[in-house]
Amino acid sequence: MLENLFASRVKPDEKSRLVGLFPETHYLDNISFGGGAPEEKLFPVEELKEAYQVAVKRQGAHAFQYHDIRGPEYLRQFLVERAKTLVGIPEVTDDEIMLTAGGQQGIELVAKLLLNKGDAMAVEAPTYVGALAAFDTFEPTYFNVSMEDDGADLTQFELLLKAHPEIKLFYTVPDFHNPTGITMSVAKRKRLVELANKYDFIILEDTPYRDLRYVGKSLPSVKSFDTEGRVIFLSSFSKILTPAFRLGWLVADPVVVQALTKLKLTEDLEVPYLPSATIEYYLQNNDLDEHIQSLRALYQTKMEAMMAAIDRYLPGIKVSHPEGGFFLWLELDQGIDTTKLLWENAVPEQHLVYVPSESFYAHRDRKNGMRINFTGPTYEQIDDGVKRLSKMLVENSRQ
Ligand code: PMP
Q: Is the peptide bond before 179 cis (omega within 30 degrees of 0)?
């Protein structure tokens, strides 16, 4: 048994939260509401191709060499400016910025920095499954904070903090939350920082969807209220440019950046040079915000199409009403098990994929919800997929 030699963190008997999450079905008419993929036809392919060629041409053979762990200079400066204007941190400096291999590595590094086995941390319930998978590796003790329409329930959280002052990390997705689509109110953002100061914990503010707002005005980041360096702001190029280059970035206190950089060195030695240089040249020669504007326009119409299909085929169902992002969250009657339905009906009968709610709960104990993605599927698939969802629920209620 090779598994006997594995470290306890691997837990061979426990299914990973991520493996098998997006079932590959080979039916031709398969519709996926499962992943969180950007719309492919809006990738700026020609511009990125040209930027890659410039990156190679300018550096010659050196482009293929090892490079600085901190990543290209211009790119870091671009992020310093973006943090000032879009994140609202007027004083941010270069030593507070760090590049990571996607937002995912940022989450994993923060977990590695803070969590010894058994350490207490709090998460929104539900929350991003990939973050839970990263935290799982460090075997924390999880505490759940329920979600309300304007973000995490901070009254409940404060009671939790009083009972468990050992909580040292709170992970939140305040903008267009994955999986529910909910956005945290400004009042709660402020209050959250006050709680962190009072009860001595760190906030990981994960915001890959922040720029993808379709309705209303952008809200100040949680980090913008930070007074003691307790907030780590994490973002990514995955949803606004391309996930293929695996490039994320964070803003944190210099002490935190130094410690995270030390941990990153042992993982991959450096920020991959060619992807980051390609993005650097792309940013020098193109207007990222103009590109984001075109994404917003398309995604807004897709979100509206999905809401309309839900009104048509699933009237009265409990659904979230996001102002941006990639996802809607459906809550079904208690007793309905969406994992069971996925494997027994959605995939084999309807050829439809969604992500069942249990994946998004730290204790995998809530089964009557599902996350559906509206950015990946076509308009026809959105309409047809919601129709299939309705059919699945009708068939289930007859049993
Ligand atoms: N955080 C959240 C909330 C996400 O939804 C995702 C991707 N689905 C990530 C982090 C990781 O993204 P990436 O590593 O591609 O930047």
A: yes
